Amino acid sequence: MKSEKPDMPVYAPVDPHEAMDAIGHRVQHYANTRGNHPALMDDQGTLDWRGLLEQVNRIANRLREAGLQPGESVAALSGTRRDDVALFLGTLVAGGCMVPLSGMASAEALAMMVADCQARFLFVSGQHQALLAALREHLTDMPAERIISLGSPMDGAGCELADWLAQATTTARPEPVTLDHPFNIIYSSGTTGTPKGILHDYRFRQRQMVRMSRYGLDGDAINLVSTPLYSNTTLVSVLPTLYHGGTLVLMAKFNAREFLALAEKHRVTHAMLVPVQVQRILAVPDFDRFDLTSFRLKLCTSAPLRSPVIADAMARWPGNLREVYGLTEGGISTSLDCAAHPHKWDSVGIPTEGAEVRVIGEDDQELPQGETGELVGRAISMMRGYVNRPQQTRDMLWTSPQGEMFYRSGDMGRVDEDGFIYILDRRKDMIISGGFNVYPVDLEKVLLAHPAVADATVIGIPSDPWGETPLGLVVLRPGQNASETTILEWANRQLGKTQRLAAIEFRTTLPRSAIGKVLKRELRAPYWPEA
Q: What is the pTM of this model?
């Protein structure tokens, strides 16, 4: 994998004069210039920049000693604690490519990801001990000595992090890297299909880290992190904060009232949230009791934020709110400044600096302003491609008449007369539940495997706690009498936690188009009366 990753295509505009300023090199600087400044705060206390950099360097040096070569992958089933952040930075300092993995995925899917990225090491946090036990039998090419537990010892791991680092030095030796060097791989979907590894290089991340500092994610930021590190949503705010020497307040598990307590206690200035979190925080009965005057900006992404929620946040929560829309792959990048544009709260804003968004029709021809089609985008930050999936990478591309590469979003939308972008539907019928992407096709495959099921589809329906939740619509085979509960429990046993179906409803038939496609818009309509 070491030689393959840098050879993948680059679709982002390339500036031959762009200077390299690697995060692994920058963070070494902070131990000297702001050694006593808080770097990380979690339930274990506060770690300053000097202490963090000692841990980062120990991890980097131990990885190299254990055989990690520049460009090779280090995978982690991690959480949101100080060791998880130190591991991410330590991997970069060693010249490795970080691969954060979701503990919500199935053991089979995780094994595919570990094999796909050819990970040399796997680190596992304590909360994933049971998952490691299920995963271990699938990791046929991963010897036990390369599985390290973050926290207490666990079955299936060769050793615990403290023991693994016992002889490691704190000497600063950041590996030389280039803008084309692999930075991280983020895996995109499901537990039943084949996950896609999205490869970001240093060019992608460095440009993003610089751009996000213009939102105040800099050395003065105190950023409250309440989403997991395997999510690109999290990294979009975490990495710039670290890159500029700021402070992260880490929540191991999100709780709305605890979020408010931490924000008040630590005088938090920034947070990256998903819509469901914003709704839950505002719904805390004594929300107005907390002192949130330190907030300068809340960022919200992963799904459109409904305008009534924006209005509530702008009225009651100090500081501005900015909605961010984009793809993990890059390309599409928009932002809505809610304070500056109160009449555009139903949009996702305008393209960010260096980004361009167009709308194309079913024939791939560009549509005029105001017409609805698929959103495609081009930006200064674009992935190198899907790891080991060149055809899927090519399938995502749309080439403009000028020969420029744009990424297909899969989202249907339009651009108004002022250049603001509105998302109207999801072309691929993706469901966003609690900030996580759920792909109906993965759930449908499971349902269709049940012997009593003749036909099935999955749609997203409204959910107060999750924003959206998956509903399975099932047609039984003649003569079958399985219950809705039986099929629901059977399917959910095979699905990851974030994929699980909320309910099953039986139908006598599913509406289909002339060419046989299930008419999901028609099925969704009764559940979304305002759509």
A: 0.83
